[in-house]
Amino acid sequence: MLKLAVFDFDSTLMDGETIDFFAEELGIGEQVSRITEEAMSGRLDFFESLQQRVQLLKGLDYSVVEKVAHNLPYMKGAKETIAELKKRGMTVICFSGGFRDATGYAKNILGYDADFSNVLHQKDGKLTGLVGGDMMFSHSKGDMLQRLQAILGISEEETLVCGDGANDLSMFAHAGTRVAFCAREILRKEANIIIETKDLTQILEKLED
C-alpha cells in the first residue's frame, strides 16, 4: 500500500519551468530555457546549470519574482490528484530544483503537505544571482527522499514518485512506483508508469489498473 507520494514541481505540478517565466521578464527566456532543456535531458550537470541560470537573473526586481511565482499555471488535475491521494491516507510532498517562492505559495493551493526547494538570494529588493537550498544537486531529491522515508518509517515499495526530468532520476532509484509524466527519455527508461498527456489524474487511473 502506498503511503508517500513525492512530486516534482516544474513541468509536473506546474505547467512550465518557473525559472523560464522569470527569465522572460528580463527578455532572456530563450537563453535560459535552452540551459534548462540541456539539464532536464541529462546533458548538463544540474548544479552547474542552476548556477548559470540564476546568475542570468541577477538584477531582477524581487517584486517581479513574487508576482510571477504567484501566478503560475498549475498542471491540469494537480489539485484533484493530490486531494485523492491524501484521501487514501498518503503524505504528499513536493521536491523542486526550482524555487520556494513558487512551491511555498502553491502548497496551500494544490494541497501538498510540505515542499523542499531552493531559495533565490535577494538584496535591496533585487536578485543577486546567487541561490541556495534543499535541491541544488542532481542527487538531492534521492537524498531527501531517503531521509524522509527514514523519518516516516516508509519503505521504497510504499513510495510513489512523479517527475519529468533528469534531476528526478535520483528519487526514482528509491521508489517502487515511478511515474514519468510527459517526461524526457532519460527518465521514461526508469519508470514503471508512463503518462503522455498533461493530466495528472491519469496517475489515479494507472494506480487502479
Entry summary:
By secondary structure, this protein is an alpha/beta fold. The chain is built from ten helices and seven strands. It has a seven-stranded mixed sheet with strand order 4-3-2-1-5-6-7, sandwiched between helices.
Strand and helix map with partners:
Blueprint: E1 4-8, H1 18-25, H2 29-40, H3 46-56, H4 62-69, H5 78-87, E2 91-99, H6 100-110, E3 114-123, E4 126-133, H7 140-152, E5 159-163, H8 169-172, E6 177-181, H9 185-188, E7 193-195, H10 202-208
Parallel strand pairs: 1-2, 1-5, 2-3, 5-6, 6-7
Antiparallel strand pairs: 3-4
Written account of the structure:
- With 209 residues, the chain is of the alpha/beta class.
- It has a single domain (4-208), classed as 3-Layer(aba) Sandwich (Rossmann fold).
- It is built from 10 helices and 7 strands.
- It has helices at residues 18-25, 29-40, 46-56, 62-69, 78-87, 100-110, 140-152, 169-172, 185-188, 202-208, and strands spanning 4-8, 91-99, 114-123, 126-133, 159-163, 177-181, 193-195.
- The protein has a 7-stranded mixed β-sheet, with helices on both faces.
- Helix 1 (18-25) crosses helix 4 and helix 4 (62-69) packs parallel to helix 6.
- The longest helix has 13 residues, at 140-152.
- It is globular, with a radius of gyration of 16 Å.
- The mean pLDDT is 96.
